[in-house]
Fold these 2 entries.
Entry 1:
Amino acid sequence: MKNLLTVLTVFALLSLVACEGPAGPAGKDGATGKDGAKGQDAGFVYFDGFKEGLKCASCHNPDTDTVFFKSAATFQWNASKHANGGTAFESGSSCAECHTTEGFVQKMSGKTVTEQANSSPVGCFACHSPHKNGDFTLRNSSAVTLFSNLTGVADYSFDYGKGNLCAQCHRPRTQAVKLDPSKSTSTDAVNDSIRITSGRWYSHYGVQSQMLMGKGGYEWSNAPEAVSNSFHTTSTSIKADGCTICHMTKAQGNYSGGHSMRLETEEEGMNLNGCKTSGCHATITTLDYKGAMTTTHKNLDTLKVLLAQAGWLDTLTMQAKASSTKPLVIKPSQKAGALWNFFLVEHDLSAGVHNTAYANALLRNSIAKMRGQF
Ligand code: HEC
Ligand code: HEC
Ligand code: HEC
Ligand code: HEC
Ligand code: HEC
């Protein structure tokens, strides 16, 4: 009881501090309070940060879970790459904010992200804060600023409802060696070149947010094909639920959808529940809708061969053929846009599903650029 009152007193004082300036010294603990009823409150010590009056058993129940169905979520999560992708060990101070629960919580709490010697993968407490909130509301779903990584192109805001949580991690990292779209028609091979000094000349791997928005690609102003976006970019349902509308759709056999976030598995095949969202694709039979994935793979393969022939792409490591000792110099710089676009579409991993029109216009223009057609 005494502990509980102390915690409550501190809470009350803290809220006073917030609006009324410095508080005086803590008052004496009350002496005459009634003991709580037997059960949850009796003698219970509330830990710092736990929601007041939290009923542990609404989640940690003796037998059957009827409130949140947490066990099902845990079961699905166990099948996800979040749980078992293995990158929770990328726990250095510049990686932990996306690869570990501990680093992400630091970031979302406005703290400096530090190296996490004892790291765990992106789990329940990354996306939710069940002990603090007493439920599974999302830890954060505000709009996210994405780095454009192109000279002269301002960063932009990603705002797709619940999907904003995903974009906190599935977003580009900064890239120091930037292309300049205003030079997209440059023929100045004497003064205009780009010097790539790392094989990882791309915006890391979480480019799905950019792809859905139709941003991040290198666009030539004299390219044969105008770049546009698919319906997914502007759909009001996708604008509201973002990534979750497809990836967290009704689970199928508990191996896809839901917290597995996977849409295709060996065991269960494709999960089309999200595609069939009312007003979308009522009669769809495959994720490869109208052959979009097949087409994207074909374009990626063609471009890959052209980039390898130019000596720009290492097809074993799937990185640029560049290092600090052996930089890759491309002249005029705009030609490197083809390599940039290849990495963007390749790392998106949806084979064009996120934004078929955008991905394939970038690829076709890049192929034409490598073939010297413009
Ligand atoms: C809104 C749901 C919810 C409530 C209420 C809740 N917990 Fe939890 N708790 C979780 C989840 C989710 C986990 C993560 C592990 C899992 O999936 O079981 C967890 C894990 C834990 C763990 C293991 C810690 C760890 O790091 O693995 C402890 C201990 C715990 N809770 C104690 C409590 C106590 C004590 C209360 C009541 C004061 C409480 N919980 C109330 C959802 C809840
Ligand atoms: C805290 C950061 C973080 C958040 C938030 C996050 N992810 Fe991830 N996600 C990752 C990381 C890191 C990986 C790669 C894990 C690995 O390979 O170890 C990943 C992997 C995935 C994969 C599997 C990719 C593959 O290559 O098979 C999918 C699908 C996915 N995330 C979807 C989502 C969706 C949808 C959301 C939002 C509901 C989301 N993620 C939120 C960090 C995050
Ligand atoms: C802004 C968030 C973010 C940061 C910071 C970040 N990563 Fe990642 N990383 C991701 C996401 C998201 C994925 C998974 C993408 C997917 O599978 O779709 C990923 C994937 C990876 C992969 C797997 C690549 C593959 O081919 O499957 C490695 C390795 C990796 N990151 C290493 C690192 C290292 C090392 C750092 C720090 C130097 C780092 N990451 C920093 C978000 C981030
Ligand atoms: C990568 C982010 C992410 C991780 C990790 C994650 N969740 Fe969730 N969770 C979500 C999102 C997003 C939703 C909302 C889904 C929706 O409304 O479509 C959600 C919804 C839920 C719900 C349903 C809430 C309700 O009120 O209907 C439960 C229960 C839940 N999560 C439990 C868990 C548990 C337990 C874990 C850990 C095993 C976990 N989550 C891990 C993102 C995540
Ligand atoms: C319109 C539905 C839809 C939306 C919206 C969507 N995705 Fe996807 N995503 C897919 C499909 C379909 C695939 C391909 C899955 C496959 O081939 O197994 C995919 C693939 C992925 C992959 C690679 C998974 C793998 O297994 O290789 C990641 C990671 C991913 N999406 C993350 C996201 C993120 C993050 C968002 C939000 C920014 C998002 N997606 C929005 C449908 C969607």
Entry 2:
Amino acid sequence: MYAYTYTRYGNPDVLNHVELPTPTPKANDVLIRICATTVSAGDWRARSLTMPAGLGLIGRLVFGITRPRKPILGTELSGVIQEVGANVTMFHRGDAVIGFPGARFGAHAEYIVMPETGKIVHKPDALRFEDAAAIPFGATTAYDFLVNKGKLSAGERVLINGASGSVGSACVQMAKHFGADVTGVCSTTNIDLVRALGADRVIDYTTTDFTTQGPQYDMVVDTVGSAPWVRTQQALVPQGRMLLIAGSTSDMILGALRARLKGKRLIGGVASESVEVLRKVVQMTADGHFHPIIDRCFDFSQMIAAHAHVDTGHKKGNVVVTLGSPNNTGKDLHSAALTHL
Ligand SMILES: NC(=O)c1ccc[n+]([C@@H]2O[C@H](COP(=O)([O-])OP(=O)(O)OC[C@H]3O[C@@H](n4cnc5c(N)ncnc54)[C@H](OP(=O)(O)O)[C@@H]3O)[C@@H](O)[C@H]2O)c1
């Protein structure tokens, strides 16, 4: 099979297009032929070792001290089951699936082996492979933070910082779905997109600092790391809570204590990458309550260009890479994705 590997950290040029043996599934594994994958913020961090200030050492411990431990990137995928191990009962050859290797990576390849009890669910027929691949990373993070960690309630006033990104665009849609009053923060070019996602109000961060507008929000979600606790606390009502999906080392370590001292809460940590949450967000997508936003769709041969686009830090939603799925149009799908809204 063909795959993209990297043996040192750096810019997209560290990626190599190589031929490797196709992996063989063990008794409890499935072999998936990948039809579409994405270049996510997780891939960007692991490839470039870009970590929040002060977390460089932790980044090396996670991804590999002197060189990358996992040579193939790719956190999410859609595809077709090619082969099943002797003990596999939940999947059959030919099943269309969505997989979320997440921090285990491995989806920037033509094939991947995953345990049948891993984060794999059947792909709803109505979903295109391109859209299906763009669900797991952003939507499971949004769901886990808003619902499981943040205990979002209907009627709450929620602000999403970074509302046009993969995680942010999912947060806006899910917070609306669960009955919140949603304010999205993005740059000028993304105002229409964030409105179309369902935000009740949009703040342009290039002209307005939401932290100076007074205490208005029950919940502030930072998906960027540009709203430190010391400023964000001013935007929270008494007992308000901040969900720190991306942020500084200082806030990650001391934020919860600082927030408690003010009678508020700061909730950080890592999103749970569970199959239960994956199943929920895929069902939400099938039911029309969530639409993964696709910025651009690249061919597998353009993987390095796809990484370079993500490196700008300004992608809209998700960057998809296709590997010849049955319904691959090869076109820029941004407008197509938006027509769903
Ligand atoms: N804690 C966890 O478990 C977890 C899980 C998943 C992801 N993450 C982290 O979450 C972060 C976001 O991931 P993602 O996939 O959503 O990334 P992304 O798609 O690249 O989104 C980043 C967004 O940030 C916006 N942005 C940039 N500067 C901004 C600013 N000053 N104010 C407001 N928005 C700004 C950009 O929009 P504009 O173009 O409009 O500027 C862009 O759309 C990453 O750091 C990732 O590592 C954490």
